[in-house]
Amino acid sequence: MRKRYLAIIIMLLIFSVSLVLTSGCSENDKSEKSTIKTEESIGTEEENKSLKESDTEEQNTNEATQIESQKKDESTAETSPETSLEAKIGKNDVNTKSSVQGPPPVEPQEAIIEEKLLSCVISIECSTILDNIETLDPDKAGLVPEDGIIMPAQEISFNEGESVFDVLQRATRENKIHMEFEDTPVYNSAYIEGIHNLYEFDCGELSGWMYKVNGWFPNYGCSRYQLSDGDVIEWVYTCDLGRDVGSEVSQ
């Protein structure tokens, strides 16, 4: 009988121990699962934080790029060839004030001559020689008129699209006045060497012929100046590289 009771007690003890062990395993499983979830949560938070930092850095980079691009655009706009004074007057080393007063040149090969008669006024004079007669070539003294006027102002007709050089040729031919020129390909224009047998350097090393239209001395050859109706052309002889006839000479 005692053996039977002893066996029952042992079985109960074994059963109790089993319950205790089972309960412990369950608690361990729960603890492990909780730890895993916690680690996963921490990992997710770190990933989210990293993504946010990456997004912030990318946004800052984009903003910096946009600001730099705006600065470049503003800088380009300030120095744009279309708005700069250099673009308006070209790259010639000429007086700025003088350059912006006249029309741009028209290349002779690009000029379109229309059969539409216009008129202009042209004159030729060399009065500056009278003030520098001591430097004039003695052989040319008899060619200088007493008043310095070789051809007084006169009206002459021309076709639309013609140049100052075209009108000079016509005027000297009609008035039987000597005129000699040389084609200068580098300037794409005719260069007037002499009128009325008065040539460059005849009255000093800075002497020669110049022209002005409506009071303005162009900085390009007479073949490239396309005339407009009513223009006033003056051919003048200078003894001082234009300074004695009112031209602003570039330095």
Written description of the protein model:
It is built from four helices and seven strands, in the order αααββαβββββ. It is an alpha+beta fold. The protein folds into two domains: 1-79; 96-245, Beta Complex (Ferric Hydroxamate Uptake Protein, Chain A, domain 1). The radius of gyration is 49 Å and the shape is rod-shaped.
Q: Key terms for this structure?
A:
251 residues, alpha+beta, Ferric Hydroxamate Uptake Protein, Chain A, domain 1, four-stranded mixed β-sheet, three-stranded antiparallel β-sheet, 4 helices, 7 strands, 39% helix, rod-shaped
Describe the SSE topology.
Blueprint: H1 2-78, H2 85-89, H3 96-99, E1 117-125, E2 149-159, H4 164-174, E3 179-184, E4 189-195, E5 198-199, E6 208-213, E7 232-238
Parallel strand pairs: 1-7
Antiparallel strand pairs: 1-2, 3-4, 4-5, 6-7
